[in-house]
Specification:
Layout: E1 3-8, H1 12-22, E2 28-34, H2 37-47, E3 51-54, H3 63-73, E4 78-83, H4 88-97, E5 101-104, H5 109-120, E6 125-126, H6 128-138, H7 147-150, H8 154-164, H9 169-176, H10 180-194, H11 199-208
Parallel strand pairs: 1-2, 1-3, 3-4, 4-5, 5-6
Length: 212
């Protein structure tokens, strides 16, 4: 299956570099480029890509607002943030807006390829440096768990912890010595109890509340 990708970044050189690299993957196809958030929204509505690589700092409309607008009209589009900002003031709003993945431009390009493939499989993926940064900040806060966390069973908390590290259901099953079907049941229960829509939001909830 070919993964159709739209790139949104206001730097021409960055876009061309991404096009060159992504096209080396046999199943990747770059189907469009946008130089600002508004253009990204309009192009995405027209060509309906599988993946939208979204920069955050762009003119006219920034990446977070563009993500909000697109998820409102195309809820099934997969948005991968690709930026230089690793602080929680950017990461958390981007994920809350609906991004499925958050990657840093400085990281190994292979991490971006992995993120795209994971997102296409319905999984979430945070850049390891972003995860470390968030955890370091959040461990300084109180570790008192809110009532929603208290509603989870011990096993569900273990699964949530694994989700927060970006593991797939198969990887979680191997780590906890349970079946993949059991993992899927736990994930479904976790999403329901935490009142979140997907694994990305569950992972964000876990990180925000010190579940790691």
């Amino acid at each position: 299956m070919t993964i159709r990708i739209l790139i949104a970044d206001d730097h021409h050189v960055v876009r061309k570099g991404l096009v060159f690299f992504l096209q080396t993957q046999p199943d990747f196809e770059v189907v469009g480029e946008a130089s600002n958030g508004q253009e990204a929204v309009e192009l995405a509505k027209k060509i309906k890509p599988d993946i939208l690589l979204m920069d955050l700092s762009m003119p006219i409309l920034d990446g977070i607002e563009a993500t909000k607008q697109l998820k409102a009209i195309q809820p099934f589009i997969h948005i991968v943030i690709l930026t230089s900002f690793s602080d929680q003031d950017h990461v958390i709003p981007a994920l809350e807006a609906g991004a499925s993945s958050y990657q840093l431009k400085e990281s190994n390009p292979d991490e971006l390829v992995l993120a795209i493939r994971k997102v296409m499989n319905g999984e979430s993926q945070l850049d390891p440096k972003v995860t470390t940064h968030l955890l370091n900040r959040l461990t300084k806060r109180t570790k008192q768990e809110p009532k929603l966390i208290d509603s989870l069973t011990k096993r569900e908390k273990e699964v949530l912890k694994e989700i927060a590290t970006g593991k797939s259901n198969k990887e979680i099953a191997a780590s906890l010595y349970i079946t993949e079907k059991t993992v899927k049941t736990h994930v479904s229960n976790i999403l329901s109890k935490l009142d979140v829509q997907d694994r990305t939001q569950a992972a964000l909830y876990a990180v925000q509340n010190g579940i790691h």
